[in-house]
Amino acid sequence: MKKLYLLLLTAFFLTGSLAIAQDRVSSLNFETRSEVIATHGMVCTSQPLVTQIALDILKKGGTAVDAAIAADAALGLMEPTGSGMGGDLFAIVWDAKTQKLYGLNSSGPSPRSLTLKYFQDHGYQFIPAHGPLPVSVPGCVDGWNELHKRFGKLPIKEILQPAIDYAREGYPVTELIAYYWKLNARILKKYPGFAEEFMPGGKTPVKGQIFKNPNLANTLELLAKKGFREFYEGKPARVIDKYMHENGGFLSYDDLASYHAVWVKPESTNYRGYDVWELPPNGQGIAVLQMLNMLENFDIKSMGFGSVAYLHLLTEVKKIVYEDRAKFYSDPAFNKIPVEQLISKKYAKERLKLYDPHHAAKYYPAGQPEQGNTVYLTVADQYGNMVSLIQSNYRGMGSGMTPPGLGFVLQDRGELFSLKPGQFNTYAPGKRPFHTIIPAFVTKDGKPWLSFGVMGGAMQPQGQVQILVNLIDFGMNLQEAGDAPRIRHDGSSQPTGTKMKDGGWLNMESGFRYDVIRQLMQMGHRVRFSLGGYGGYQAIMRDTTNQVYYGASESRKDGQAAGY
Fold it and tell me: Tell me, what's the pLDDT at 25?
């Protein structure tokens, strides 16, 4: 009895109230840590050394965009398992001067010389995951170019120099990245150039080993000297062209030289007073908006975090929305996508008619509206600017195709096309594939509130929705919202042409009660435990009352949130 009294007394002093202490224990049954709080700037990335690089750029007077580019360049070196110059990039920028949000789509199209007929003639039902055929134009570097032209302040050389120095001098590989590096290499080492670049001495680097990439240092130095467009119009483009044609690929110099990233208008919906912003297709960001529009029709707060009612609702809403994702999400230059209708409140209520609060559905029809490893980072600066940026090769280290002397792998994003004729996402030359990587932003009363993202293919919309519900409905703080256990539903219909017929699988992290799991199974959910695949979360929140930034970086990655 005395021990119990002491525990309760301790809880009282820690929280200021016994009632609050009891509430926190019952609703937050998981490990977490404090948020990071700073006044002048904040950086959250998935690699601690990269966070420090970006922080140094901010301290030199650089903008959030300057720091984000420096961080992304360094991540391509230090976390090649999810990023690099051979991949694509998306960003949402809050500009303090204009008090507006700007969206950038820097995803590249398919090679113009590769046709649907080629795949049909060679008997392909799906585009291969690796090798030369899934390679699309890497959009990352022109994303840097557009961001820097519009919102940058420091010279390119100063921004890229930290990554150049680390590439030449070496850096210690972190534990999780070493693990994924080894997994990727088992598949990719057979492709020309990969082992030479990423397996020194015939092995992938282990935790703590110093890894150097002098070829990447040379490529970055070339861009620092001649500008970002040199990637598409100079030596790198010519090397890629020659390499691809020598190894059965189609990506050409002309494909690269003609590529330009595009500025796009972010789309939004209001969720319980908060305006949530996502980029329009060819990405999957509007799936978040569709899910939120459906969820706001329920009193989720009263359901409680981790409850049967909430987890069942969340899973079924995801399944419904992903049928629209499979049918409509694609390159808007090739299709008239009914975005406004898909993200409307009216359409959400129509789709909710399919929802059964007592049973898990094995399949859902797509709607008829009236007319896959990644890196995410976010930066906020002393001027009030904020950047939400996500970048990826797709499938970890990408296609395996590694042009000689450049220091990076080309992406395999083209795998996400469908080869079935007549679909929105059917392969075509010069077309951007369906895309999974999505940065997110939230404003409140027209002011910036949250810049965040969740890495991980099809997990990203599911993860973003869970973060927002944790923050808005369950009242968690920024760090708790990311550390809370998550669910991931797999097996939905896909833009590549596959259809869900069996209800898919509900994956659950440890931390959910066994009686909840049993009840979900009784409702028809096929449940399994999975250790990975729940994304990687980084976030910055703006507190306008105290004029400070809050930062969070979850424990599922090697990352760090830091400010000054």
Answer: 34
CA atoms within 13 A on the CB side of 134: 28
Q: How many Å apart are CA 69 and CA 75, to the nearest integer?
A: 10
Extract the tokens encoding 436.
């999974």
Residue 533 has what pLDDT? 87
Q: Catalytic residue positions?
A: 374
User: CB–CB of 427/282 below 8 Å?
Assistant: no
Report which of 213, 129, 133 is spatially closest to residue 221, judged by C-alpha positions. 213
Taking only the tens place, the pLDDT of each residue in 233-247 is 999 999 999 999 999
Looking at residue 421, the DSSP 8-state letter turns out to be T
Domain boundaries defined on the chain: 1-25, 36-263+374-416, 283-371+436-558
Top-level CATH class of 283-371+436-558? alpha beta
List helix spans (H) across 227-357. Answer: 230-233, 235-246, 253-257, 286-295, 300-303, 308-328, 339-342, 345-351
User: Which pairs from 240-243 meet CB under 8 Å and 24+ separation?
Assistant: 240/403, 240/406, 240/410, 243/192, 243/193, 243/401, 243/403, 243/404
pTM: 0.93
462 Cβ neighbours under 8 A, 6+ residues apart = 314, 318, 486, 487, 488, 489
* pLDDT given for residue 6 in this prediction: 38
Cβ partners under 8 Å of residue 134, min gap 6 = 127, 128, 399, 411, 412, 413, 414, 415
Burial level of 214, CB count in 10 A (0-12/13-18/19+)?
Answer: middle
Calculate the dihedral angle through the C-alpha atoms of 446, 451, 454, 455, rounding to the nearest 10 degrees. Answer: 120
Q: Which residues of the chain fall short of a pLDDT of 70?
A: 1-28, 369-373
Position of tokens 């961001």?
A: 147
